[in-house]
Amino acid sequence: MRKPLKVFYNCAKCPAYCCSYERIEVTPHDLRRLAKSFAISQREFKKKYTKKGEEKGEIILRHKKDEHFGTVCQFLDSETRMCGVYGARPKACRDYPKSARCGYYEFLKFEREWQDDPEYVALTSNC
Ligand code: SF4
Ligand code: SF4
Question: Where are the domains positioned within the chain?
Fold first, then answer.
């Protein structure tokens, strides 16, 4: 059995910066999985929870207001900062950050040490 990849970030200590990304794509496969998890039709899910993206035919998740990042994915629980559709989340969310390090987490760790505040939430759009 392959060893799990060692990672240098901890999502449990992060307010889910990645969920503030404006363009979380929903592929046709994601759409099927998400609609099924809500026990509604794909058409209904698409209408209620997605909107058109910039690319032709692209659909993305809708956002809601957020106290930290302005807006975040509507499926993010504002209190727990956990994904409300974790088992059915889009591929884009499953894949992120695609490496052993997360840029935002590196920045967050640095800021928390600098501010001497383990709860500090760093605001940036540069990672
Ligand atoms: S921004 Fe990075 S550390 Fe934070 S929840 Fe997303 S992947 Fe995890
Ligand atoms: S579906 Fe879940 S993991 Fe993906 S952006 Fe929304 S809250 Fe975050």
Answer: 16-96, 97-127
Q: Which of 85, 79, 80, 87 is nearest to 48 (CA)?
A: 85
- As averages over each run of 10 residues, the pLDDT of the chain (127 residues) reads 84 95 97 98 98 95 96 97 98 95 94 93 67
Q: What global pTM score does this model have?
A: 0.91
Between the CA of 15 and the centroid of ligand 1 the distance, in Å, is 8
Give dist(CA 122, CA 89) in Å, integer.
Answer: 25
Ligand closest to 78 (CA) is 2
> Distance from first CA to last CA of the chain, Å, rounded?
33
